[in-house]
Amino acid sequence: MSFISKLLPGNTLYYPGCLTKYVAKDLEENYKKILNKIGIDFIMLKESEFCCGNPVLNAGHEKEAKELAEKNFKLFKERGVKKIITSCPSCFHMFKSNYPKLVKDWDIKVEHITQTINEAIKKGKIIPRNLNEDITYHDPCHLGRYEGIYEEPRDILKKSGNLKEMKLTKNYSFCCGGGSGVKSNQPELANSIAKERVGMAKETKAKILCTSCPMCYLHLKENSKDIEVMELSQLFKNEK
């Protein structure tokens, strides 16, 4: 461990991911407040960190993705990082399942923030706002089908409102249409998929469609009508 890493306040890194850091900045602020409320001593590397490499790997550029992963791992080790908490499902999947294949001696624990929050709720450290509304949940692909995180976000939502499931959910969930470059390369297709997913949400008669992915949130919100779209951190909007 380097000398500078010994001076840092904690060895837990909050990694928001590129989309949250550069586009959905309000979500980053929400999650920082939540982590502070929970009492987690975390650090952020801000402009020092690199993209996790998930978009690069998805595009078929394994060599470049490996280079990004190695750069990040070197930086994490220099800063004494032993655990990563991320609010991006794609980053979570990349760190959790792909970095061990791309980086020699990868030994950093990885946690999605829904896991962190759910445990904190169980310990009485934080509670979501009581919205007193019917809520339906959209499973992000990388969080659900890829990593099997289904119950934690649902447990959180049940503390805030009445959960109503869509007809395609969990392992059979419908993609939002925005990921894997579809939104950038085939926007009409991406929007049509999102509109179909929003339609499924409206069939539940829920007032709110909630998800725990910045891409899903932004894309579904852009294509929503007659239903409010929320990202999970907004359930804790009033945290200081």
Word description of this protein:
The protein has two domains: 3-116, Rossmann fold, CATH 3.40.50; 128-236, 3-Layer(aba) Sandwich (Rossmann fold), CATH 3.40.50. 45% of the residues lie in helices and 12% in strands. The chain has eleven helices and eight strands. A four-stranded parallel β-sheet has the order 2-1-3-4, sandwiched between helices. A four-stranded parallel β-sheet has the order 6-5-7-8, with helices on both faces.
Protein topology:
Blueprint lengths: L2 H5 L4 E4 L2 H5 L2 H14 L3 E2 L10 H5 L3 H17 L4 E4 L2 H14 L6 E4 H10 L11 E5 L12 H8 L3 E2 L18 H4 L1 H17 L4 E4 L2 H9 L5 E4 L9
Parallel strand pairs: 1-2, 1-3, 3-4, 5-6, 5-7, 7-8
Distance between the termini: 33 Å
- Record the strand order, biggest sheet: 2-1-3-4
The tally of helices reads 11
Mean pLDDT: 92
Provide a brief overview of the structure.
By secondary structure, the protein is α/β, with parallel strands linked by helices.
